[in-house]
Amino acid sequence: PVLVVDFGAQYAQLIARRVREAQVYSEVVPHDTPVADLMAKDPAAIILSGGPSSVYAEGAPGMDPALVDTGVPIFGICYGHQLLVQALGGTVEHTGSREYGRTEVTVTDDAGVLHNELPRRHPAWMSHGDSVTKAPEGATVTATSEGAPVAAFEDTGRRFAGVQYHPEVGHSPHGQEVLRRFLHDIAGIRPQWTTSSIVEEQVAAIRRQVGDGRAICGLSGGVDSAVAAALVQRAIGDRLTCVFVDHGLLRAGERSQVERDFVAATGVNLVTVDARERFLSALAGVTDPEQKRKIIGREFIRVFEQAERDLKAQGDYRFLVQGTLYPDVVESGGGAGTANIKSHHNVGGLPEDLQFELVEPLRLLFKDEVRRVGLELGLPETIVHRQPFPGPGLGIRIIGAVDAARLETLRAADAIAREELTAAGLDRDIWQCPVVLLADVRSVGVQGDGRTYGHPVVLRPVSSEDAMTADWTRLPYDVLERISTRITNEVPEVNRVVLDVTSKPPGTIEWE
Ligand code: XMP
């Protein structure tokens, strides 16, 4: 792998994703990983990420200088650029000229490999207080900026390079090309990380792990569990059984999408449990969001456990498939992830004492890779490109108590919004667009000749990379208008459509 050493900024995961976009497998490792442990992973190259620190700050994370003697190609970015320069005997100084944000970079006459034939002056994203003032002995300075005399250097002989700017962000339009050139042309790595190779490797890994055992997988209707199930199905065929719990809090068409489209694409064994009554009665009269979530989580576990007991008759299901993604793994410190299940998980918070061995075929993948794998496995676009949907479902999109009639209302409004967004070709531009029913709010309206006294629904379109932060999406007015007109015409209980224009933070994406 290419190892991305994380110096504590939020950029390491992004760098790892960009490396994979260059078709090279990458992993994020903490900055205090000893050199011996790095070498044990047999890295094809090492990338030192940016970080929040000054190399001179007290307690600033450092880099073991021995790293440069390992013979592994190294690319430094921002803070990592400065660390690499220091380790190689160059100079980093507090020059007093900081650069933050979009900055003009000038390619030198000897543009080297990384900046060869790029526009002589081009924008790049900077964020630094210290600057490299002298490149290491034997290295070429290939770019400069006003605040960074050595905005880029390379030593192709020893296979080292560094850039002061952030090539991984969209604001550095040539960044991906520079990163690609480092990986392919300086480090000499062959681009082999492709979707078909991912599928092949994961299928082989699942076969090794599961042997002739049986696995069970809870389907949520979401992308991750669907792709995880499809991979395991490809590996072990009908020794996988999927369980889909219809808790009555699903969107329109969701159940049939799983029962029809997913089964048609994979031929998987599917057990659907109709638990609508059970959830509705458990939720009756409950308005507190946390209480709703707890009840839904608890009921889900009961239903899932019952399904698992029912399956015992067929054989021993020792493995549980989970759609855990790489960002979850990195954020939880890269833990081993077998043994018992931790409480907070995709399936909806399974209890700790539920004894399964986990199969997590997506634990090396980012979301965009998961989607590509899904398509490679023949899953329909309707599943692969669907918006994220919370486990507690529409239950946390009804502000107020949940009942069958309110669910029906929200389902109808939500279906219209999704239809119009899809028709406008906006599905890929938005992260998701929850529709929220303000069930305890009423407002006066007029329709035909009559007064109405109905409920508002809120449209909550957001753009996001990872749902940790989000911005409200500027949807075209004509699309908003169609959604509003249709909902108020077609859903009798709703007489008002409002737009949520709050970013996250301070708002969360969901209302509850
Ligand atoms: P918030 O509302 O916290 O949501 O900004 C961030 C993302 O997570 C989804 N979400 C959930 N997903 N179980 C899930 O599987 C949950 O309990 C849950 N709550 C929120 C939400 O849709 C958004 O994509």
Automatic annotation (TrEMBL):
<keyword id="KW-0658">Purine biosynthesis</keyword>
<dbReference type="InterPro" id="IPR022310">
    <property type="entry name" value="NAD/GMP_synthase"/>
</dbReference>
<comment type="function">
    <text>Catalyzes the synthesis of GMP from XMP.</text>
</comment>
<feature type="binding site">
    <location>
        <begin position="220"/>
        <end position="226"/>
    </location>
    <ligand>
        <name>ATP</name>
    </ligand>
</feature>
<feature type="domain" description="GMPS ATP-PPase">
    <location>
        <begin position="193"/>
        <end position="386"/>
    </location>
</feature>
<dbReference type="InterPro" id="IPR022955">
    <property type="entry name" value="GMP_synthase"/>
</dbReference>
<protein>
    <recommendedName>
        <fullName>GMP synthase [glutamine-hydrolyzing]</fullName>
        <ecNumber>6.3.5.2</ecNumber>
    </recommendedName>
</protein>
<dbReference type="GO" id="GO:0003921">
    <property type="term" value="F:GMP synthase activity"/>
</dbReference>
<feature type="active site">
    <location>
        <position position="166"/>
    </location>
</feature>
<dbReference type="InterPro" id="IPR017926">
    <property type="entry name" value="GATASE"/>
</dbReference>
<dbReference type="InterPro" id="IPR014729">
    <property type="entry name" value="Rossmann-like_a/b/a_fold"/>
</dbReference>
<dbReference type="Pfam" id="PF00117">
    <property type="entry name" value="GATase"/>
</dbReference>
<dbReference type="InterPro" id="IPR025777">
    <property type="entry name" value="GMPS_ATP_PPase_dom"/>
</dbReference>
<keyword id="KW-0436">Ligase</keyword>
<dbReference type="InterPro" id="IPR004739">
    <property type="entry name" value="GMP_synth_GATase"/>
</dbReference>
<dbReference type="Pfam" id="PF00958">
    <property type="entry name" value="GMP_synt_C"/>
</dbReference>
<comment type="subunit">
    <text>Homodimer.</text>
</comment>
<comment type="pathway">
    <text>Purine metabolism; GMP biosynthesis; GMP from XMP (L-Gln route): step 1/1.</text>
</comment>
<feature type="active site">
    <location>
        <position position="168"/>
    </location>
</feature>
<keyword id="KW-0547">Nucleotide-binding</keyword>
<keyword id="KW-0332">GMP biosynthesis</keyword>
<dbReference type="GO" id="GO:0005829">
    <property type="term" value="C:cytosol"/>
</dbReference>
<keyword id="KW-0315">Glutamine amidotransferase</keyword>
<feature type="active site" description="Nucleophile">
    <location>
        <position position="78"/>
    </location>
</feature>
<dbReference type="Pfam" id="PF02540">
    <property type="entry name" value="NAD_synthase"/>
</dbReference>
<keyword id="KW-0067">ATP-binding</keyword>
<dbReference type="InterPro" id="IPR029062">
    <property type="entry name" value="Class_I_gatase-like"/>
</dbReference>
<dbReference type="GO" id="GO:0005524">
    <property type="term" value="F:ATP binding"/>
</dbReference>
<dbReference type="InterPro" id="IPR001674">
    <property type="entry name" value="GMP_synth_C"/>
</dbReference>
